Amino acid sequence: MFTNKDFPKAKEYWFMGKFHDWSEAIIHPMTHALHYGNSVFEGIRAYKTAKGPAVFRLKEHLERFMHSASTLKMKSPYSIKEITEIIKSVIKKNNLEAAYIRPLLFYSYGNLGLIPKACPVELLVGAWEWGAYLGENALTGVKVYILPWRRVHHSQYDMSAKLGGIYVQSTICGLIAREKGCDEALFLNLEKNVAEGPGENIFIYKDGILKTNDRSESVLEGITRTSLLEIAEDLGIKTRIEPITKQDFLEADEAFFSGTAAEIAPITRVKDASDKNVPEKDSVIGSGKPGELTIKILETYADCVRGKIKKYEKWLTYVY
After folding, report:
1. Is 162 among the catalytic positions?
2. Domain at 12-128, CATH class
3. What confidence tens digit (pLDDT) does each residue in 254-271 have?
4. Out of 11, 75, 93, 162, which one is annotated catalytic?
5. How far, in Å, CA of 120 to CA of 237, rounded?
6. pLDDT tens-digit profile of 142-190?
7. Where are the alpha helices (DSSP H) in the chain?
8. Nearest Cα residue to 38 out of 197, 168, 188, 223
9. What number of CA atoms fall less than 13 Å from residue 206's CA on the CB side?
10. Which of 40, 82, 94, 257 is deepest in the core (most CB within 10 A)?
11. How large is the C-alpha radius of gyration of the chain?
């Protein structure tokens, strides 16, 4: 029996054309993706607005979803248009005003060799009410653990795809960060520059310039990241896309994570374990509190996703 204890307000999920009770299990234990991580996914949020629930940047998420599927040589059984309607129906079915939405394409049951030659591609969509990913206190600032292990490199696979199996590195290192008393991990890349968090991009602010990096630094260029760059420019904030050294990060006036799940999470404290030959060192970012620029962007983004800024309604797909 599966409960929805950690999936608030989730009553039913959608799988291959039908709704199923949340407690119902329908996946065979020999499903290919369960053994090899051969799945692609998206994390998408819907927000409560004056016009009902609205999904943020659904088109862009589903375009990346299909790109990820093609990277894994999957042929989706449903089109973007069809998945759009499925997602709306899941939100309606669960009577959600705001939601975290998880579409998943995976190689299902067939054979269990590395090549899924007899495994159909199947689609699952679930949604539930999910609060702050890094905890309810994240807005007051999180502590990050700079890992001694490097982020998987952009020369190894197409980092513009969200592939399920790749996230095992994120899980391992996220658990390690929490064992170390931190809220989240932070990867450097093989070049020893700042890459990203396990599921978040990073921004730093210094000398009036808001800076983030790109896929050449071994990051997934997130949809939230892209949105914040546009919002920042609209606010008259100078932005720059270039490598971020560890020293740039540690000496920043402000820093924050961005991502669909994490939204915007100010980074205020650091435990640096990036060099195994040097003792771990604690430090603070800027004043040790969320900065004015971070708060301004956070508040603007919050209004944007809730339909309070007309200019950004172009990014909203209303459910009803």
Report:
1. yes
2. alpha beta
3. 999 999 999 999 999 999
4. 162
5. 48
6. 999 999 999 999 999 999 999 999 999 999 999 999 999 999 999 999 9
7. 32-36, 58-71, 80-93, 168-179, 223-234, 246-250, 292-305
8. 168
9. 16
10. 257
11. 20
